[in-house]
Amino acid sequence: MASLRNLAISVHRQDGHTNIAAALRQTARERLRPLTALGITG
């Protein structure tokens, strides 16, 4: 689980987010956002 959390944090930082908590909340609201961040179109 820690590896998945670290992956999520790394992806958000790579996207340029400095506030990880806000980025996680935004991701929770937009279900396709994680796929887009990873370069996967859904």
UniProtKB/TrEMBL annotation:
Domain of life: Bacteria
Name by which UniProt lists this protein: Uncharacterized protein
